[in-house]
Amino acid sequence: MHIQLTKDFLGNPAGQRLDVPEHDAQALVAQGVAQLTDDDPIAPVLQRSIQPALESSIEKALAKVLQQRSASSGNRLPFAGLGDQAAR
């Protein structure tokens, strides 16, 4: 749980943000040493850095699977025969 210290605490200056276990966070808030923060400073950075690579990997894997299926099926439609018979 993310907190921001409102007072100096164990060598950490007031204003410093920390990630601590929930029970510790609640105790520090109850003592008036810290306040809860809703924002996670790392999550947005990770999302911006990882998301493009993840999307690219998924697209490459999907393209590879589709390419293998089309090569092995002799250019048949991938879902032919699995659904509505009226679409013949």
What does this structure look like?
This protein is an alpha+beta fold and 88 residues long. It has two domains: 35 residues, no CATH class; 31 residues. It contains two helices and three strands. The model has no long low-confidence stretch (mean pLDDT 83).
Task: For this entry, give a set of tags.
88 residues, alpha+beta, 3-stranded antiparallel beta sheet
| Discrete helix count | 2
Major sheet: arrangement of strands:
2-1-3
Q: What are the low-pLDDT stretches, counting only 5+ consecutive residues below 50? A: none
Percent of residues in beta strands? 5-15%
Q: The biggest beta sheet, please?
A: 3 strands, antiparallel
Mean pLDDT: 83
Structural class: alpha+beta
Order of helices and strands: EEHEH
Radius of gyration: 26 Å
* Broad shape: rod-shaped
What is the total number of structural domains? Answer: 2
Q: Please give the number of β-strands.
A: 3
Measured distance between first and last alpha carbons: 57 Å
Residues in helices, as a percent range: 40-55%
